[in-house]
Design brief:
By secondary structure, the protein is α/β, with parallel strands linked by helices. It has two domains: 352 residues, Rossmann fold, CATH 3.40.50; 161 residues, no CATH class. Helices cover 34% and strands 21% of the residues. Strands 1-2-3-5-4-6-7-12-13 form a nine-stranded mixed sheet, sandwiched between helices. A three-stranded antiparallel sheet has the order 14-15-16, with no helix packed on it. The chain starts with a helix and ends with a strand. 49% of the residues are buried. The N terminus is likely disordered. The protein binds 2-acetamido-2-deoxy-beta-D-glucopyranose (5 copies). One 2-acetamido-2-deoxy-beta-D-glucopyranose (NAG) binds next to loops. Belongs to the tannase family. This is Carboxylic ester hydrolase. Its EC number is 3.1.1.-. GO terms for molecular function: feruloyl esterase activity; metal ion binding. Keywords: Calcium, Disulfide bond, Hydrolase, Metal-binding, Serine esterase, Signal.
Protein backbone atom coordinates (compact mmCIF):
# COMPACT_ATOMS: atom_id res chain seq x y z
CA UNK A 1 0.00 0.00 0.00
CA UNK A 2 2.74 2.45 1.02
CA UNK A 3 4.72 1.47 -2.03
CA UNK A 4 1.72 2.01 -4.31
CA UNK A 5 1.16 5.42 -2.82
CA UNK A 6 4.80 6.25 -3.33
CA UNK A 7 4.60 5.23 -6.99
CA UNK A 8 1.43 7.23 -7.42
CA UNK A 9 3.00 10.33 -5.92
CA UNK A 10 6.06 9.87 -8.08
CA UNK A 11 3.82 9.57 -11.13
CA UNK A 12 2.13 12.83 -10.37
CA UNK A 13 5.41 14.64 -9.69
CA UNK A 14 6.90 13.24 -12.84
CA UNK A 15 3.97 14.32 -14.94
CA UNK A 16 3.77 17.82 -13.58
CA UNK A 17 7.52 18.17 -13.98
CA UNK A 18 7.19 17.24 -17.62
CA UNK A 19 4.34 19.65 -18.18
CA UNK A 20 6.43 22.36 -16.56
CA UNK A 21 9.41 21.66 -18.79
CA UNK A 22 7.18 21.75 -21.86
CA UNK A 23 5.91 25.14 -20.82
CA UNK A 24 9.39 26.54 -20.19
CA UNK A 25 10.63 25.42 -23.55
CA UNK A 26 7.76 27.30 -25.14
CA UNK A 27 6.20 24.23 -26.77
CA UNK A 28 2.91 25.61 -25.50
CA UNK A 29 2.26 27.71 -28.54
CA UNK A 30 -1.17 28.17 -30.04
CA UNK A 31 0.09 28.26 -33.61
CA UNK A 32 1.13 25.44 -35.82
CA UNK A 33 -0.75 22.69 -33.98
CA UNK A 34 -1.23 19.66 -36.16
CA UNK A 35 -3.14 16.69 -34.79
CA UNK A 36 -2.01 13.34 -36.09
CA UNK A 37 -3.61 11.36 -38.86
CA UNK A 38 -7.33 10.65 -38.54
CA UNK A 39 -8.15 7.20 -39.97
CA UNK A 40 -10.71 7.39 -42.76
CA UNK A 41 -10.59 11.16 -42.95
CA UNK A 42 -8.60 13.98 -44.44
CA UNK A 43 -7.86 17.20 -42.60
CA UNK A 44 -8.81 20.23 -44.71
CA UNK A 45 -7.67 23.03 -42.43
CA UNK A 46 -6.52 23.92 -38.94
CA UNK A 47 -7.08 27.35 -37.48
CA UNK A 48 -6.01 28.39 -34.03
CA UNK A 49 -6.04 31.49 -31.92
CA UNK A 50 -5.42 32.49 -28.32
CA UNK A 51 -8.50 34.04 -26.75
CA UNK A 52 -8.19 35.91 -23.46
CA UNK A 53 -10.63 36.67 -20.70
CA UNK A 54 -13.80 36.16 -22.70
CA UNK A 55 -17.36 35.30 -21.72
CA UNK A 56 -19.76 32.72 -23.10
CA UNK A 57 -23.28 33.96 -22.52
CA UNK A 58 -26.09 31.83 -21.14
CA UNK A 59 -28.46 30.32 -23.68
CA UNK A 60 -31.32 28.32 -22.23
CA UNK A 61 -31.72 25.36 -22.00
CA UNK A 62 -28.11 24.48 -22.85
CA UNK A 63 -26.15 26.89 -20.68
CA UNK A 64 -28.02 28.34 -17.75
CA UNK A 65 -25.53 30.99 -16.66
CA UNK A 66 -22.84 33.16 -18.23
CA UNK A 67 -19.30 31.85 -17.95
CA UNK A 68 -16.64 34.52 -17.93
CA UNK A 69 -12.91 34.85 -17.45
CA UNK A 70 -12.17 32.13 -20.01
CA UNK A 71 -8.72 32.06 -21.58
CA UNK A 72 -8.00 29.35 -24.12
CA UNK A 73 -6.08 28.37 -27.16
CA UNK A 74 -8.91 27.62 -29.58
CA UNK A 75 -8.12 25.15 -32.33
CA UNK A 76 -10.58 24.55 -35.15
CA UNK A 77 -9.92 21.43 -37.16
CA UNK A 78 -11.94 20.95 -40.33
CA UNK A 79 -11.95 17.50 -41.89
CA UNK A 80 -13.78 15.44 -44.43
CA UNK A 81 -14.44 11.71 -44.31
CA UNK A 82 -12.95 9.75 -47.17
CA UNK A 83 -15.70 8.89 -49.68
CA UNK A 84 -18.20 11.15 -47.95
CA UNK A 85 -19.52 14.56 -48.93
CA UNK A 86 -19.09 16.38 -45.66
CA UNK A 87 -17.16 19.10 -43.90
CA UNK A 88 -16.79 18.53 -40.20
CA UNK A 89 -15.73 21.23 -37.73
CA UNK A 90 -14.09 20.16 -34.50
CA UNK A 91 -13.48 22.85 -31.89
CA UNK A 92 -10.85 22.25 -29.24
CA UNK A 93 -10.39 24.59 -26.29
CA UNK A 94 -7.12 24.32 -24.40
CA UNK A 95 -7.02 26.31 -21.15
CA UNK A 96 -4.08 28.73 -21.11
CA UNK A 97 -3.85 28.54 -17.33
CA UNK A 98 -4.55 25.86 -14.77
CA UNK A 99 -5.04 22.91 -17.11
CA UNK A 100 -6.12 20.01 -14.90
CA UNK A 101 -4.28 17.42 -17.03
CA UNK A 102 -7.50 15.90 -18.38
CA UNK A 103 -9.25 15.84 -21.73
CA UNK A 104 -13.00 15.89 -22.16
CA UNK A 105 -15.11 15.48 -25.28
CA UNK A 106 -18.54 17.04 -24.92
CA UNK A 107 -21.69 15.93 -26.70
CA UNK A 108 -24.65 17.52 -28.40
CA UNK A 109 -28.37 17.90 -28.02
CA UNK A 110 -31.38 17.18 -30.25
CA UNK A 111 -30.18 17.23 -33.84
CA UNK A 112 -26.81 18.81 -32.97
CA UNK A 113 -23.79 16.54 -32.50
CA UNK A 114 -22.16 19.30 -30.50
CA UNK A 115 -23.05 22.65 -29.02
CA UNK A 116 -19.65 24.30 -29.46
CA UNK A 117 -19.00 27.19 -27.07
CA UNK A 118 -22.03 26.44 -24.90
CA UNK A 119 -20.79 23.01 -23.93
CA UNK A 120 -17.06 23.79 -23.98
CA UNK A 121 -17.23 26.76 -21.60
CA UNK A 122 -18.43 25.03 -18.41
CA UNK A 123 -15.86 22.24 -18.59
CA UNK A 124 -12.97 24.47 -19.64
CA UNK A 125 -13.84 26.63 -16.64
CA UNK A 126 -13.14 23.53 -14.52
CA UNK A 127 -9.71 23.14 -16.11
CA UNK A 128 -10.40 20.46 -18.71
CA UNK A 129 -9.06 20.61 -22.24
CA UNK A 130 -12.29 20.12 -24.16
CA UNK A 131 -13.54 19.34 -27.64
CA UNK A 132 -16.83 19.43 -29.51
CA UNK A 133 -17.75 18.43 -33.09
CA UNK A 134 -20.56 19.50 -35.39
CA UNK A 135 -20.25 16.16 -37.26
CA UNK A 136 -20.70 18.11 -40.51
CA UNK A 137 -24.31 18.98 -39.63
CA UNK A 138 -25.87 22.44 -39.46
CA UNK A 139 -25.53 22.66 -35.69
CA UNK A 140 -29.25 23.41 -35.29
CA UNK A 141 -30.50 21.19 -32.44
CA UNK A 142 -34.16 21.68 -33.41
CA UNK A 143 -34.28 21.16 -37.16
CA UNK A 144 -32.25 18.77 -39.33
CA UNK A 145 -33.82 20.31 -42.46
CA UNK A 146 -30.57 21.79 -43.74
CA UNK A 147 -28.78 18.46 -43.93
CA UNK A 148 -31.16 15.48 -43.64
CA UNK A 149 -31.86 15.12 -47.36
CA UNK A 150 -29.51 15.45 -50.28
CA UNK A 151 -30.33 17.60 -53.32
CA UNK A 152 -31.80 14.52 -54.99
CA UNK A 153 -34.29 14.17 -52.12
CA UNK A 154 -32.67 11.02 -50.68
CA UNK A 155 -31.61 10.63 -47.07
CA UNK A 156 -28.07 11.89 -46.46
CA UNK A 157 -26.42 8.75 -45.15
CA UNK A 158 -22.97 10.34 -44.93
CA UNK A 159 -24.21 12.86 -42.40
CA UNK A 160 -26.57 10.49 -40.61
CA UNK A 161 -23.61 8.14 -40.10
CA UNK A 162 -21.52 11.01 -38.78
CA UNK A 163 -24.32 11.92 -36.36
CA UNK A 164 -24.99 8.30 -35.47
CA UNK A 165 -21.49 7.32 -34.47
CA UNK A 166 -18.29 8.03 -36.31
CA UNK A 167 -17.94 11.71 -35.37
CA UNK A 168 -17.57 10.57 -31.74
CA UNK A 169 -14.42 8.61 -32.58
CA UNK A 170 -12.94 11.39 -34.72
CA UNK A 171 -13.53 13.82 -31.87
CA UNK A 172 -11.62 11.58 -29.46
CA UNK A 173 -8.69 11.14 -31.83
CA UNK A 174 -8.36 14.77 -32.87
CA UNK A 175 -9.13 16.17 -29.43
CA UNK A 176 -6.60 14.00 -27.60
CA UNK A 177 -3.87 14.51 -30.22
CA UNK A 178 -4.35 18.28 -30.24
CA UNK A 179 -4.23 18.39 -26.45
CA UNK A 180 -1.01 16.38 -26.40
CA UNK A 181 0.61 18.56 -29.10
CA UNK A 182 -0.23 21.76 -27.27
CA UNK A 183 0.82 20.82 -23.76
CA UNK A 184 3.71 18.60 -24.86
CA UNK A 185 2.25 15.78 -22.78
CA UNK A 186 -0.79 13.58 -23.26
CA UNK A 187 -3.82 14.11 -21.05
CA UNK A 188 -3.62 11.74 -18.10
CA UNK A 189 -7.32 10.89 -18.36
CA UNK A 190 -9.90 11.25 -21.09
CA UNK A 191 -13.64 11.67 -20.52
CA UNK A 192 -16.87 11.84 -22.44
CA UNK A 193 -19.60 14.07 -21.06
CA UNK A 194 -23.03 14.48 -22.60
CA UNK A 195 -26.76 14.46 -21.98
CA UNK A 196 -29.65 13.51 -24.27
CA UNK A 197 -28.05 13.24 -27.73
CA UNK A 198 -24.77 13.67 -25.85
CA UNK A 199 -25.73 10.73 -23.63
CA UNK A 200 -26.43 8.64 -26.70
CA UNK A 201 -23.04 9.59 -28.14
CA UNK A 202 -21.41 8.53 -24.87
CA UNK A 203 -23.02 5.12 -25.16
CA UNK A 204 -21.86 4.93 -28.77
CA UNK A 205 -18.32 5.42 -27.48
CA UNK A 206 -18.86 2.68 -24.88
CA UNK A 207 -20.20 0.29 -27.51
CA UNK A 208 -18.08 1.03 -30.58
CA UNK A 209 -14.96 2.87 -29.45
CA UNK A 210 -14.26 1.46 -25.99
CA UNK A 211 -10.63 2.56 -26.00
CA UNK A 212 -11.35 6.23 -26.55
CA UNK A 213 -12.29 7.32 -23.02
CA UNK A 214 -11.33 6.33 -19.48
CA UNK A 215 -14.68 7.55 -18.22
CA UNK A 216 -18.02 8.17 -19.90
CA UNK A 217 -20.81 10.24 -18.37
CA UNK A 218 -24.11 9.74 -20.20
CA UNK A 219 -27.20 11.57 -18.95
CA UNK A 220 -30.79 10.93 -20.13
CA UNK A 221 -29.37 9.05 -23.13
CA UNK A 222 -31.21 9.19 -26.46
CA UNK A 223 -30.50 5.51 -27.08
CA UNK A 224 -33.10 3.24 -28.70
CA UNK A 225 -33.45 6.17 -31.10
CA UNK A 226 -35.33 4.25 -33.79
CA UNK A 227 -37.98 3.16 -31.28
CA UNK A 228 -38.32 5.94 -28.78
CA UNK A 229 -38.39 8.78 -31.30
CA UNK A 230 -41.38 7.22 -33.07
CA UNK A 231 -42.97 6.50 -29.68
CA UNK A 232 -42.66 10.21 -28.87
CA UNK A 233 -45.32 10.79 -31.51
CA UNK A 234 -47.86 8.53 -29.78
CA UNK A 235 -49.52 11.25 -27.64
CA UNK A 236 -50.30 13.19 -30.83
CA UNK A 237 -51.83 10.07 -32.37
CA UNK A 238 -53.94 9.53 -29.26
CA UNK A 239 -55.32 13.07 -29.33
CA UNK A 240 -55.83 12.88 -33.06
CA UNK A 241 -57.88 9.70 -32.82
CA UNK A 242 -59.84 11.07 -29.85
CA UNK A 243 -60.54 14.17 -31.97
CA UNK A 244 -59.79 16.16 -28.85
CA UNK A 245 -56.84 18.38 -28.05
CA UNK A 246 -56.96 19.25 -24.38
CA UNK A 247 -54.46 21.83 -23.21
CA UNK A 248 -51.27 20.43 -21.68
CA UNK A 249 -52.43 22.11 -18.49
CA UNK A 250 -55.54 19.89 -18.36
CA UNK A 251 -53.48 16.77 -19.05
CA UNK A 252 -51.04 17.83 -16.34
CA UNK A 253 -54.06 18.10 -14.02
CA UNK A 254 -54.39 14.33 -14.22
CA UNK A 255 -50.64 13.99 -13.67
CA UNK A 256 -50.93 16.09 -10.50
CA UNK A 257 -53.72 13.87 -9.17
CA UNK A 258 -51.55 10.83 -9.78
CA UNK A 259 -48.53 12.42 -8.11
CA UNK A 260 -50.65 13.29 -5.07
CA UNK A 261 -52.01 9.73 -4.89
CA UNK A 262 -48.62 8.01 -5.29
CA UNK A 263 -46.36 10.53 -3.55
CA UNK A 264 -46.19 8.75 -0.19
CA UNK A 265 -45.73 5.19 -1.47
CA UNK A 266 -42.07 5.63 -0.51
CA UNK A 267 -43.01 6.96 2.93
CA UNK A 268 -42.17 10.60 2.21
CA UNK A 269 -44.43 13.44 1.15
CA UNK A 270 -42.35 15.51 -1.25
CA UNK A 271 -44.54 15.88 -4.36
CA UNK A 272 -42.42 13.24 -6.11
CA UNK A 273 -43.47 9.73 -7.16
CA UNK A 274 -40.40 7.88 -5.93
CA UNK A 275 -41.96 4.42 -5.80
CA UNK A 276 -43.02 4.37 -9.45
CA UNK A 277 -43.33 0.59 -9.59
CA UNK A 278 -46.18 0.62 -7.05
CA UNK A 279 -47.98 3.61 -8.54
CA UNK A 280 -51.13 2.16 -10.10
CA UNK A 281 -53.19 5.33 -10.22
CA UNK A 282 -56.31 5.05 -12.38
CA UNK A 283 -56.53 8.29 -14.42
CA UNK A 284 -60.34 8.02 -14.49
CA UNK A 285 -60.28 8.73 -10.73
CA UNK A 286 -59.30 12.28 -11.66
CA UNK A 287 -62.52 12.85 -13.64
CA UNK A 288 -64.50 15.67 -12.06
CA UNK A 289 -61.54 17.16 -10.24
CA UNK A 290 -60.61 20.74 -10.98
CA UNK A 291 -57.36 22.25 -12.22
CA UNK A 292 -56.39 25.90 -12.71
CA UNK A 293 -55.55 26.67 -16.34
CA UNK A 294 -55.03 30.23 -17.57
CA UNK A 295 -56.57 31.51 -14.37
CA UNK A 296 -59.75 29.46 -14.80
CA UNK A 297 -61.02 26.36 -13.05
CA UNK A 298 -61.25 23.54 -15.56
CA UNK A 299 -62.96 20.23 -14.77
CA UNK A 300 -61.13 17.08 -15.83
CA UNK A 301 -63.34 15.20 -18.27
CA UNK A 302 -63.63 11.53 -19.20
CA UNK A 303 -61.99 12.35 -22.53
CA UNK A 304 -58.95 13.95 -20.88
CA UNK A 305 -58.54 10.99 -18.52
CA UNK A 306 -58.77 8.57 -21.42
CA UNK A 307 -56.07 10.44 -23.35
CA UNK A 308 -53.71 10.42 -20.35
CA UNK A 309 -54.40 6.74 -19.80
CA UNK A 310 -53.28 5.91 -23.34
CA UNK A 311 -50.24 8.19 -23.15
CA UNK A 312 -49.07 6.42 -19.98
CA UNK A 313 -49.76 3.04 -21.53
CA UNK A 314 -47.58 3.80 -24.56
CA UNK A 315 -47.90 3.10 -28.27
CA UNK A 316 -49.65 -0.07 -29.41
CA UNK A 317 -50.29 -1.81 -32.68
CA UNK A 318 -53.89 -2.04 -33.89
CA UNK A 319 -54.00 -5.54 -32.39
CA UNK A 320 -52.96 -4.21 -28.99
CA UNK A 321 -49.30 -5.21 -28.80
CA UNK A 322 -47.07 -2.69 -27.05
CA UNK A 323 -44.51 -1.05 -29.30
CA UNK A 324 -42.66 1.00 -26.71
CA UNK A 325 -43.08 2.60 -23.27
CA UNK A 326 -45.41 5.39 -22.34
CA UNK A 327 -44.55 8.50 -20.35
CA UNK A 328 -43.82 7.74 -16.71
CA UNK A 329 -46.22 9.12 -14.10
CA UNK A 330 -44.91 12.51 -13.03
CA UNK A 331 -43.57 13.52 -16.44
CA UNK A 332 -45.01 16.75 -17.84
CA UNK A 333 -47.30 16.44 -20.85
CA UNK A 334 -46.48 19.69 -22.64
CA UNK A 335 -43.65 18.35 -24.80
CA UNK A 336 -45.16 15.28 -26.41
CA UNK A 337 -48.87 16.04 -25.95
CA UNK A 338 -48.58 19.69 -26.89
CA UNK A 339 -51.19 21.54 -28.88
CA UNK A 340 -51.58 25.06 -30.15
CA UNK A 341 -54.31 27.44 -31.31
CA UNK A 342 -54.89 27.89 -35.02
CA UNK A 343 -57.72 30.28 -35.84
CA UNK A 344 -59.17 29.84 -32.39
CA UNK A 345 -59.16 26.03 -32.36
CA UNK A 346 -56.66 23.77 -30.65
CA UNK A 347 -54.72 21.49 -32.99
CA UNK A 348 -51.92 19.02 -32.33
CA UNK A 349 -48.38 20.39 -32.08
CA UNK A 350 -46.01 17.45 -32.60
CA UNK A 351 -42.68 17.35 -30.77
CA UNK A 352 -39.86 18.55 -33.00
CA UNK A 353 -37.67 15.44 -32.79
CA UNK A 354 -40.36 12.90 -33.70
CA UNK A 355 -41.95 15.26 -36.22
CA UNK A 356 -38.69 15.83 -38.11
CA UNK A 357 -37.63 12.18 -37.84
CA UNK A 358 -40.90 11.16 -39.50
CA UNK A 359 -40.86 13.88 -42.15
CA UNK A 360 -37.23 13.75 -43.20
CA UNK A 361 -36.00 10.26 -42.46
CA UNK A 362 -39.08 8.04 -42.63
CA UNK A 363 -41.07 9.86 -45.32
CA UNK A 364 -38.20 11.76 -47.02
CA UNK A 365 -40.74 14.52 -47.49
CA UNK A 366 -40.28 17.82 -45.62
CA UNK A 367 -43.90 18.73 -46.34
CA UNK A 368 -45.38 15.57 -44.85
CA UNK A 369 -48.02 16.42 -42.23
CA UNK A 370 -47.15 14.25 -39.24
CA UNK A 371 -50.15 15.53 -37.30
CA UNK A 372 -52.41 13.38 -39.51
CA UNK A 373 -50.75 10.06 -38.52
CA UNK A 374 -53.10 7.43 -36.99
CA UNK A 375 -52.14 4.43 -34.88
CA UNK A 376 -52.07 1.97 -37.78
CA UNK A 377 -49.69 4.28 -39.63
CA UNK A 378 -47.61 4.79 -36.51
CA UNK A 379 -47.07 1.01 -36.25
CA UNK A 380 -45.79 0.97 -39.80
CA UNK A 381 -43.50 3.93 -39.13
CA UNK A 382 -42.24 2.15 -36.03
CA UNK A 383 -41.14 -0.96 -37.89
CA UNK A 384 -39.77 1.05 -40.83
CA UNK A 385 -37.72 3.12 -38.42
CA UNK A 386 -36.13 -0.01 -36.94
CA UNK A 387 -35.66 -1.80 -40.21
CA UNK A 388 -33.95 1.07 -41.97
CA UNK A 389 -32.06 2.88 -39.24
CA UNK A 390 -31.27 0.62 -36.28
CA UNK A 391 -27.76 0.00 -37.54
CA UNK A 392 -27.01 3.68 -38.07
CA UNK A 393 -28.43 5.27 -34.96
CA UNK A 394 -30.11 3.00 -32.40
CA UNK A 395 -27.00 3.13 -30.18
CA UNK A 396 -28.29 0.37 -27.87
CA UNK A 397 -25.92 -2.55 -28.49
CA UNK A 398 -25.63 -4.36 -25.13
CA UNK A 399 -22.20 -5.87 -25.77
CA UNK A 400 -19.96 -3.71 -23.63
CA UNK A 401 -17.22 -6.32 -23.37
CA UNK A 402 -14.82 -3.92 -25.13
CA UNK A 403 -15.30 -1.31 -22.45
CA UNK A 404 -14.89 -3.89 -19.71
CA UNK A 405 -11.65 -5.05 -21.31
CA UNK A 406 -10.26 -1.54 -21.68
CA UNK A 407 -11.07 -0.83 -18.02
CA UNK A 408 -13.29 2.11 -18.98
CA UNK A 409 -16.03 3.32 -16.62
CA UNK A 410 -19.56 4.22 -17.66
CA UNK A 411 -21.86 6.27 -15.47
CA UNK A 412 -25.40 6.68 -16.79
CA UNK A 413 -28.15 8.63 -15.08
CA UNK A 414 -31.72 9.31 -16.11
CA UNK A 415 -34.55 11.38 -14.58
CA UNK A 416 -37.61 9.27 -13.87
CA UNK A 417 -39.96 12.09 -14.85
CA UNK A 418 -38.29 12.65 -18.22
CA UNK A 419 -41.02 14.05 -20.50
CA UNK A 420 -39.10 13.34 -23.73
CA UNK A 421 -36.94 10.23 -23.45
CA UNK A 422 -38.57 7.29 -21.68
CA UNK A 423 -36.33 6.23 -18.76
CA UNK A 424 -37.72 2.68 -19.10
CA UNK A 425 -35.60 2.37 -22.28
CA UNK A 426 -32.43 3.10 -20.31
CA UNK A 427 -33.41 0.50 -17.68
CA UNK A 428 -34.06 -2.03 -20.42
CA UNK A 429 -30.63 -1.28 -21.86
CA UNK A 430 -28.93 -1.88 -18.53
CA UNK A 431 -30.83 -5.19 -18.20
CA UNK A 432 -29.77 -6.20 -21.70
CA UNK A 433 -26.14 -5.49 -20.81
CA UNK A 434 -26.50 -7.64 -17.66
CA UNK A 435 -27.89 -10.46 -19.79
CA UNK A 436 -25.09 -10.09 -22.35
CA UNK A 437 -22.24 -9.92 -19.85
CA UNK A 438 -23.07 -12.44 -17.17
CA UNK A 439 -25.10 -10.63 -14.54
CA UNK A 440 -25.50 -7.44 -12.56
CA UNK A 441 -22.45 -7.85 -10.32
CA UNK A 442 -20.10 -8.14 -13.28
CA UNK A 443 -21.64 -5.14 -14.98
CA UNK A 444 -21.43 -3.03 -11.81
CA UNK A 445 -17.65 -3.22 -12.03
CA UNK A 446 -17.68 -0.79 -14.92
CA UNK A 447 -21.23 0.41 -15.69
CA UNK A 448 -23.54 1.94 -13.10
CA UNK A 449 -26.98 3.41 -13.63
CA UNK A 450 -28.63 6.03 -11.43
CA UNK A 451 -32.35 6.81 -11.67
CA UNK A 452 -33.42 10.17 -10.27
CA UNK A 453 -37.08 10.25 -9.12
CA UNK A 454 -39.14 13.24 -10.21
CA UNK A 455 -36.36 14.67 -12.38
CA UNK A 456 -37.04 15.91 -15.91
CA UNK A 457 -34.94 15.79 -19.08
CA UNK A 458 -31.27 16.35 -18.24
CA UNK A 459 -32.28 17.87 -14.92
CA UNK A 460 -33.61 21.22 -16.09
CA UNK A 461 -35.57 21.50 -12.86
CA UNK A 462 -39.13 21.79 -14.20
CA UNK A 463 -40.32 18.94 -11.98
CA UNK A 464 -39.69 18.81 -8.22
CA UNK A 465 -37.19 15.91 -7.87
CA UNK A 466 -33.60 16.20 -6.61
CA UNK A 467 -31.10 16.47 -9.48
CA UNK A 468 -27.69 14.74 -9.27
CA UNK A 469 -25.30 17.48 -8.17
CA UNK A 470 -21.97 16.28 -9.47
CA UNK A 471 -22.13 13.03 -11.44
CA UNK A 472 -18.92 14.03 -13.22
CA UNK A 473 -17.07 14.26 -9.90
CA UNK A 474 -18.33 10.77 -9.04
CA UNK A 475 -17.08 9.44 -12.37
CA UNK A 476 -13.67 11.09 -11.97
CA UNK A 477 -13.24 9.52 -8.51
CA UNK A 478 -14.20 6.14 -9.95
CA UNK A 479 -11.73 6.41 -12.84
CA UNK A 480 -8.83 7.99 -11.02
CA UNK A 481 -9.14 6.69 -7.47
CA UNK A 482 -11.07 3.49 -8.03
CA UNK A 483 -13.94 4.65 -5.83
CA UNK A 484 -17.00 3.11 -7.47
CA UNK A 485 -20.07 5.28 -6.76
CA UNK A 486 -22.87 3.63 -4.76
CA UNK A 487 -24.94 6.77 -4.76
CA UNK A 488 -24.98 10.27 -6.19
CA UNK A 489 -25.83 13.22 -4.02
CA UNK A 490 -28.72 15.21 -5.40
CA UNK A 491 -30.42 18.50 -4.69
CA UNK A 492 -33.58 20.17 -5.93
CA UNK A 493 -33.29 23.04 -8.40
CA UNK A 494 -33.35 26.59 -6.98
CA UNK A 495 -36.76 27.02 -8.69
CA UNK A 496 -38.29 23.95 -7.06
CA UNK A 497 -41.36 24.49 -4.85
CA UNK A 498 -39.61 22.75 -1.93
CA UNK A 499 -35.93 22.35 -1.22
CA UNK A 500 -34.41 18.98 -0.27
CA UNK A 501 -31.35 16.84 -0.82
CA UNK A 502 -31.47 13.13 -1.56
CA UNK A 503 -29.30 10.13 -2.28
CA UNK A 504 -29.73 8.74 -5.78
CA UNK A 505 -28.86 5.09 -5.37
CA UNK A 506 -27.10 2.82 -7.80
CA UNK A 507 -29.64 0.79 -9.78
CA UNK A 508 -31.46 -1.36 -8.76
CA UNK A 509 -31.25 0.01 -5.19
CA UNK A 510 -33.65 2.71 -4.03
CA UNK A 511 -33.33 5.58 -1.59
CA UNK A 512 -35.47 4.91 1.47
CA UNK A 513 -36.24 7.22 4.37
CA UNK A 514 -34.90 5.79 7.64
CA UNK A 515 -38.06 6.71 9.48
CA UNK A 516 -36.41 9.33 11.68
CA UNK A 517 -34.44 12.53 11.12
CA UNK A 518 -35.00 15.39 8.71
CA UNK A 519 -36.75 14.01 5.60
CA UNK A 520 -35.39 16.90 3.52
CA UNK A 521 -31.79 15.84 4.21
CA UNK A 522 -30.08 13.04 2.32
CA UNK A 523 -28.50 11.90 5.59
CA UNK A 524 -31.90 10.46 6.56
CA UNK A 525 -31.95 8.02 3.64
CA UNK A 526 -30.42 4.62 2.96
CA UNK A 527 -29.88 2.76 -0.29
CA UNK A 528 -31.92 -0.45 0.03
CA UNK A 529 -33.50 -3.10 -2.17
CA UNK A 530 -37.10 -1.91 -1.86
CA UNK A 531 -39.42 0.44 0.01
C1 LIG B 1 -13.68 28.37 -34.80
O1 LIG B 1 -15.02 28.18 -35.25
C2 LIG B 1 -15.97 28.96 -34.57
C3 LIG B 1 -17.34 28.54 -35.06
O2 LIG B 1 -17.44 28.70 -36.42
C4 LIG B 1 -15.67 30.43 -34.78
O3 LIG B 1 -16.61 31.21 -34.08
C5 LIG B 1 -14.28 30.73 -34.29
O4 LIG B 1 -13.94 32.08 -34.55
C6 LIG B 1 -13.27 29.82 -34.97
N1 LIG B 1 -11.95 30.01 -34.39
C7 LIG B 1 -10.86 30.07 -35.10
C8 LIG B 1 -9.58 30.16 -34.37
O5 LIG B 1 -10.87 30.01 -36.33
C1 LIG C 1 -11.53 40.54 -17.88
O1 LIG C 1 -12.73 41.07 -18.46
C2 LIG C 1 -13.54 41.77 -17.56
C3 LIG C 1 -14.79 42.20 -18.32
O2 LIG C 1 -15.39 41.12 -18.92
C4 LIG C 1 -12.81 42.97 -17.01
O3 LIG C 1 -13.61 43.60 -16.05
C5 LIG C 1 -11.50 42.49 -16.37
O4 LIG C 1 -10.77 43.60 -15.98
C6 LIG C 1 -10.70 41.66 -17.35
N1 LIG C 1 -9.53 41.11 -16.65
C7 LIG C 1 -8.30 41.16 -17.17
C8 LIG C 1 -7.21 40.57 -16.33
O5 LIG C 1 -8.07 41.68 -18.25
C1 LIG D 1 -9.45 34.62 -14.06
O1 LIG D 1 -8.59 33.59 -14.55
C2 LIG D 1 -7.25 33.73 -14.13
C3 LIG D 1 -6.43 32.67 -14.83
O2 LIG D 1 -7.02 31.42 -14.79
C4 LIG D 1 -7.18 33.62 -12.62
O3 LIG D 1 -5.85 33.77 -12.18
C5 LIG D 1 -8.06 34.69 -12.01
O4 LIG D 1 -8.10 34.54 -10.61
C6 LIG D 1 -9.48 34.62 -12.56
N1 LIG D 1 -10.23 35.77 -12.11
C7 LIG D 1 -11.44 35.66 -11.59
C8 LIG D 1 -12.10 36.93 -11.20
O5 LIG D 1 -12.00 34.58 -11.44
C1 LIG E 1 -46.11 23.92 -26.84
O1 LIG E 1 -46.64 24.67 -27.91
C2 LIG E 1 -46.62 26.07 -27.69
C3 LIG E 1 -47.39 26.72 -28.81
O2 LIG E 1 -46.80 26.45 -30.05
C4 LIG E 1 -45.18 26.53 -27.61
O3 LIG E 1 -45.12 27.91 -27.36
C5 LIG E 1 -44.50 25.77 -26.46
O4 LIG E 1 -43.12 26.10 -26.43
C6 LIG E 1 -44.64 24.28 -26.65
N1 LIG E 1 -44.13 23.61 -25.46
C7 LIG E 1 -43.08 22.78 -25.46
C8 LIG E 1 -42.66 22.24 -24.15
O5 LIG E 1 -42.49 22.48 -26.49
C1 LIG F 1 -57.29 30.85 -40.62
O1 LIG F 1 -58.34 31.65 -41.05
C2 LIG F 1 -58.04 32.45 -42.17
C3 LIG F 1 -59.23 33.39 -42.42
O2 LIG F 1 -60.42 32.66 -42.41
C4 LIG F 1 -57.71 31.57 -43.36
O3 LIG F 1 -57.35 32.35 -44.47
C5 LIG F 1 -56.54 30.66 -42.98
O4 LIG F 1 -56.27 29.75 -44.02
C6 LIG F 1 -56.84 29.89 -41.73
N1 LIG F 1 -55.63 29.18 -41.32
C7 LIG F 1 -55.59 27.87 -41.12
C8 LIG F 1 -54.26 27.29 -40.77
O5 LIG F 1 -56.57 27.17 -41.18
Amino acid sequence: MGFMLFLLTLGILFNSARAHVAFERGIKSCTNIKPSHVPGAEIISIESEEKHNFTVFASSPFLLQDISNLSVCEVNVTLTRTNAVDKVLLQIWLPLNNWNGRFMAVGGSGWAAGLGDLSLAPVVAQGFAAASTNAGLSGDPVNPGLWALKDNGKVNWDLLTNFGSRSVHDLAIVGKATTAKYYGVAAKYSYWNGCSTGGRQGLVAAQKYPNDFDGILAGSPAINWVEYVVAEHWPQVVMNEARAFPSPCELDGVVQSAVAACDELDGVKDNVVTNLAQCKFDPFKAVGSKVQCDGKDVTITQSVASIVSKIWDGPKTTTGAHLWYGLPVGALMDYLANSTFVNGTRVGNPFFVSDTWIRYFLEANPNFDSSSVNSAELSVLFSESSRRYAEAIDSACPDLSGLRKSDGKLLVWHGEADPIIFPQGTIKYRQNVERALGGAAKVDNFFRLFLAPGVDHCGQGLTPGAIPSDPLGALVSWVEKGIAPDMLTAETSPNAPAHFTRKICRYPLVSKYRGYGDPTSLASYNCVEGY
